[in-house]
Amino acid sequence: MTTLDFSPLFRSMIGFDRLATALETAYRSEPGGYPPYNVELQDENRYRITLAVAGFSENEINIEAKENLLTVSGQRQVTESEGNFLYRGIANRSFERKFQLADYVKVVEAKLEHGLLHIDLVREVPEAMKPRRITIRSADVSPAIEHVATEQAQAA
């Protein structure tokens, strides 16, 4: 198997360690798996993850968000009344799916309907992190700090 070396990308980038780790993890992970899922972009700041979890009830599914990692796991409860199957085509196995979340992405809601688990996410960027317009002053206007210092010197 060929491996990719991302180190040339990060030689001049400081603080992008998580990005390098995410790229390497995505490269190593195998596509597919159980359960199948969709990731949908609903608008600029809203996302939805949908997992096909037919046969699982709400109390058999666990959703945990910790730091920037969303983990969805399912553990089927085996009951004695399941019967004697001649053929079992419906998956009856446990699962765990992990999703790496970007900064400021939070889980808003999760609901189970018709065998599909919908997890709604929203990106809430803090006001301090949003782009802001910087006014440009002309060079002939002296800074306000110098005016205050000059006025205080004249008063003394």
TrEMBL record:
It comes from the Bacteria. InterPro entries: A-crystallin/Hsp20_dom, ACD_IbpA/B, HSP20-like_chaperone. Residues 28-139 form the SHSP domain. The keyword S-adenosyl-L-methionine does not apply. Keywords: Stress response. Belongs to the small heat shock protein (HSP20) family. PANTHER family: PTHR47062, SMALL HEAT SHOCK PROTEIN IBPA. This is Molecular chaperone (Small heat shock protein). The lineage of its organism: Bacteria, Pseudomonadati, Pseudomonadota, Gammaproteobacteria, Chromatiales.
